[in-house]
Amino acid sequence: MADPEIELPPSLEDNSPKKDVTSLRYESEQDSSPDETESRSTGTTIQDPIQWEYLTFESTLPRPSRLLEPAQDKGPPEEPDLKQYESPFNWSPGRKRFITWLSCIATTVTAYAAGSYTSGDAQMEQYFGVSRVAITVGVTTFTTGFAIAPMVLAPFSEINGRRPMFVITGIMYVLLQLCCALTRSYGGMLVARFFKGVFSSTFSTMVGGVVSDIYHAEDRNTAMALFSGAALFGTGLGPLVSGFIATYTTWRWIFYLQVITCGVVQIMVILFFKETRGSVLLSRKAKKLNQYYDALEDAGYFGLDVPCSSDPSKTVSMRIRWKVKSDEERASLVKSIGISLYRPFYLLFTEPVVFFFSLWISFAWAVLYMTFSAVPLVFETSHNFTLDQSGAVFSAISIAAILSTIVAILVDRWSKKRFPEINKTPEGRLYIACVQSALLPIGLFWFGWTSFKSVPWIVPALAIGCATMGIFSVYLAVFNYLADTYHRYASSALAAQSFCRNMLGGVFPLVTPQMFRAMSFQGAGSFLGGLGTLLTLVPFVLLVYGPKIRARSKFASEIMEN
Fold it and tell me: Is pLDDT at 10 greater than 70 in this prediction?
């Protein structure tokens, strides 16, 4: 259920050329008289105006000019340590890997929560005195919260950064796990599951943003493969572990275990996760520098040596303060939330690429969530499996996720060496997807037509792994293509597919048992396989007509022109 972060719309991002302080042309110097210019070069006082300039990670920071009438008994203040505010793109490879792995672990425990719930449905059905379908609604409420929340929470991440959002929502996530474990009412379970989906969503949506924060596009595929693999691995791990828990203990321990594991991960996040949002770090750097400059002036040091625009070998002494362009262009919180809610649906219904990719990945995710109901039904009916044995079948999903991740990383490295130009266009991302995504309908046909008592159980289990590898390919292709095609609009395009994907994924478990019983296991597998085959044509169409479609798109064509 993981999906990339939803960020603010393009009007709020800084796309203008960056200026280095060494190349700035100061209007105050140009408009002043010769005498005034000479006075500025010999000394700066508190009467001189403050020049506000835009700070970037590439800006050269000027040094203090000299001491002028220092305050008594005050020396110059200590220079601030700006190492913590450096661009995440410049972090060491080891630090990037650590943040990536920590983020992927957080994604895994979030995905674990989605599927683990259904293993206790028989016990909860008896405890709460409701039907099996009513218990399964807990999956739907979880995915509903997961689908809606990122659009509302995204602006908070934009303003405050990744770390505060991870810390606050992570603590709430752990508390809501505890609420699920302790609740004594059916309504309480549904409410807790909804808000659990709300707060856990940041551990998936923002992880894609973290990857984008620390890796440039050409280096991002390995990290994104790990991220995608973590989502699928956790989805399979949930019912795998919880099947044994529900068999040998009670359903409450399904959630107690998550309180423990999520609590440990949350402690790791609090202790070791560092801010990755570049605009937030830049704002903090500007604030720290301005505080230092204020302290310099309090100690009697006025002016900073800035290279002269007419002759860079000379400097002029000026009072400088820094500001960040993204802070100025950021809309109000209410307006930002409004745009985050509106633009994804606008793109969904006006952009064919967004619509069909959302349809493709929504079907793939619905199939993944369908397994929560289909696997116990098929294996308990055809092979007389117990709950823990049915849960063990979900290991096929986790193993397939690991294999898919390894394959994706190796293929990416091979393609870069063999075809270095392949990823320079969005369509270059689709070649592998055209082949590997076919594993989804193949796996569905395979699963349907091997769900007989006479066929060994391992055969349909392998079919689940095959379909999972196809789902992995779909997810990775959709993210990469939308990100490459829409650039600064990508956050909204990805939000659209995320909403559709999670909503449909939450609905499928409700209807899966009825569909498989009414159509037979073979009929249901064939029906889903047929739909999957039709949707597998999506990447082939874009591979051929993608450039023409992008040229006709209002949003994508703007990116192509730029």
Answer: no
